[in-house]
Amino acid sequence: MPKFDWSMLRALAVSGVVATVASVAVLPQGAAMAQSAVVRGLPDFTDLVDQVGPSVVNIRTREKASERSGANGMDEEMAEFFRRFGVPIPNVPRQQRPQRPQQDEEAQPRGVGSGFILTADGFVMTNAHVVEGADEVIVTLTDKREFKARIVGVDKRTDVAVVKIEATGLPAVKVGDVSRLKVGEWVMAIGSPFGLENSVTAGIVSAKQRDTGDYLPFIQTDVAINPGNSGGPLINMRGEVVGINSQIYSRSGGFMGISFAIPMDEAIRVSEQLRSSGRVTRGRIGVQIGAVSKDVADAIGLGKSQGAMVTGVESGSPADKAGVEAGDIITRFDGKPIEKVADLPRLVGNTKPGTKSAITVFRRGSARDLTITIAEIEPDKPVAKAVEREEKPKASAAAQQLGLSVLELTDAQKKELKLKGGVAVASATDAAARAGLREGDVILSVANTEIAGLKDFESVVSKADKSKPLSLLYRRGEWAQYAVIRPLR
């Protein structure tokens, strides 16, 4: 056996190569491969920033000075901070509110957000909450050019908006395939947090199809997102946009490692309708639905907790005409399984009105196939605003813990909405906002107890166990659905 040359090893050590030589000389093949996997390098995002960065824009909005005051006398930008990130808006005493000089009707700064160039001819995508209510929208490119933008359309249900600037030859983004996105995959965000333009943050996909009670199943990541990032792109390692950064979960108002992005396939579908007609049409079938518990599934022979339980059918609605009955469990829609109750409104909402669709219902121990013609859901009808100035919103101590203040419905409103009772949501923050409730909704029942008015609402809420999730049936426009307000832990 040849003698080992220790002088050679010393020379390698001096040159910094000894660790590599030692691992190759000593470790078995399998161990060497394992170590190689452990020391895999972190991704380099520099090429992605160069590739996608020019497509990301800063969005500033303005509105008339007389409309700028936010909730409780707070500056609108700060109020938006509280609303978007789940923090109750503090009540600032009038004597402590900052005194502003008298101003004319010139447009004043309102907020800052992000967006990205969708097409080379100037269509820009952002969040609906970034531009909603703005009288003027200013889009700034990375080369410092500024354009006044025209709002093409806003869809509050999905929080997607499209604006248009008059420019050509712009660097448009590449849209990625969300179905290829994997949990654990590296992603990057570019935006303007706190007005700091072209800030880059990165992380991984934490979950897909995250249900937050809205029409969209969100992409959850741990990418740092803060006020001003809203509307910016979520980018995969191929330089493709897979989502729009929309919101975070926070108990403090700051980033806590959980952020949500709107899947790009859903955003593109919405943007196409906004660009063609300025609004989004959605389907409806006219049913009130609830979740199917395991106990109920076992009791009726369904086998497992799945589908959407029909708790009510609107008279003359598509569901009524198709023969759907209260107590049915809708298990499939257009051949797609309904795994959880939130799947049904999403699938129906994404179906073009006038389409004939097949649904499968489980009724009295057996499955039945029905054919239903989809109708169009009407635009939301805010209820609370109509009586906001006539009556002060009620917020008992129990309701405040949920983040709710509510109003009594007038007889005229009940008649218009064809309701026997309920209370109108005047504001929804904190837990109520996270559950999907918003101003203008009408709460029909709490904890499976029908609400006739304010007295019933306060009685049921005050008696509810604050350590357990609280279910509410509410109506938005013509559509009724459940929300679950979960306690903070």
- Percent of residues in β-strands: 25-35%
The count of β-strands is 27
Rg of Cα set: 27 Å
CATH architecture of the largest domain: Beta Barrel
| Broad CATH class of the largest domain | Mainly Beta
Domain module count: 3
The averaged pLDDT comes out at: 78
Strand order of the main beta sheet, please?
Answer: 1-2-3-6-5-4
**Morphology call:** globular
Note the main sheet: 6 strands, antiparallel, barrel
Number of helices: 15
How is the CATH topology of the largest domain named?
Thrombin, subunit H
Helix share bin: 10-25%
Structural class: alpha+beta
Q: Give the terminus-to-terminus CA distance.
A: 68 Å
Spans where pLDDT lies below 50 across 5 or more residues = 8-27, 31-37, 66-73, 81-105, 381-390
Give the structure's gist in a few sentences.
The protein has 489 residues and is of the alpha+beta class.
Helices and strands in order:
Blueprint: H1 6-14, H2 18-26, H3 29-38, H4 46-52, E1 56-64, H5 76-84, E2 107-117, E3 123-126, H6 128-131, E4 136-140, E5 146-155, E6 160-164, E7 174-175, E8 186-191, E9 199-211, E10 217-221, E11 233-236, E12 240-248, E13 259-263, H7 264-277, E14 283-284, E15 287-290, H8 294-300, E16 308-313, H9 318-322, E17 329-333, E18 336-337, H10 343-349, E19 356-363, E20 366-373, E21 375-376, H11 384-387, H12 397-402, E22 404-408, H13 411-417, E23 423-428, H14 430-434, E24 442-446, E25 449-450, H15 454-463, E26 470-476, E27 479-485
Parallel strand pairs: 7-12
Antiparallel strand pairs: 1-2, 1-4, 2-3, 3-6, 4-5, 5-6, 8-9, 8-11, 9-10, 10-13, 11-12, 12-13, 14-21, 15-16, 16-17, 17-18, 17-19, 19-20, 22-23, 23-24, 24-25, 24-26, 26-27
